[in-house]
Amino acid sequence: MDELNHETGGQAEAHTDEQEKALIAAMEAADGEAANDADFDPEAAQATAKQEAEDQQMALMGATMTAEFGLGAIEIAVQSFVHPRFQIPERNRDEVLQNCAPLLVKYGALIPEWLAAYQEEIAALKAIGSLGIASYGEIKQLQAEDAALLAEKEASNDGETEPGAVDREAA
């Protein structure tokens, strides 16, 4: 075995003739594979690029739908727990959708395709849920108004009725 020594940066590098021949053969094989790739098909490349663009557009649409569901859930939660008339302004809603959809695509936080097929059902469920929550809030508000009216009547009747008498109209 004939060993060749090459000086590189002060360190000796030793390898055999067989190693050199194997490296040359590997490089020639790689060149041959690259020559086989010379059959580039521009139509196939264009079709692939078109499909990728369509996939990106579909992902963006799905991400927008995901962001809309998220905003709807936030709005309903705030209406339920903070104030029943709360609404996210359209300009803010649009800005969030425009800026969050690409981020959802980037990190893959999309509604699964099987769930996206039920968009109408989900929208109906959201509307029914919103109605239920709004109705509950309205009932609570009406009860509070009734309690205030009752307290007002009782306060005005305190001077007119006997102590211990029950106001049958208020009950």
Structure description:
With about 170 residues, the protein is mostly helical. It contains 5 helices and 2 strands. It has helices at about 15-35, 40-80, 90-105, 115, 120-155, and strands at about 5-10, 10-15. A two-stranded antiparallel sheet has the order 1-2. β1 (about 5-10) and β2 form a beta hairpin. α2 packs parallel to α5 (about 120-155). The longest helix is centred in the middle third of the chain and has 40 residues, at about 40-80. The protein is rod-shaped, with a radius of gyration of 37 Å. The mean pLDDT is about 80.
Task: Give the arrangement of secondary structure elements.
Blueprint: E1 3-8, E2 11-16, H1 17-36, H2 42-81, H3 90-107, H4 113-116, H5 119-157
Antiparallel strand pairs: 1-2
Helix pairs in contact: 2-3, 2-5
Keywords:
171 residues; 2 strands
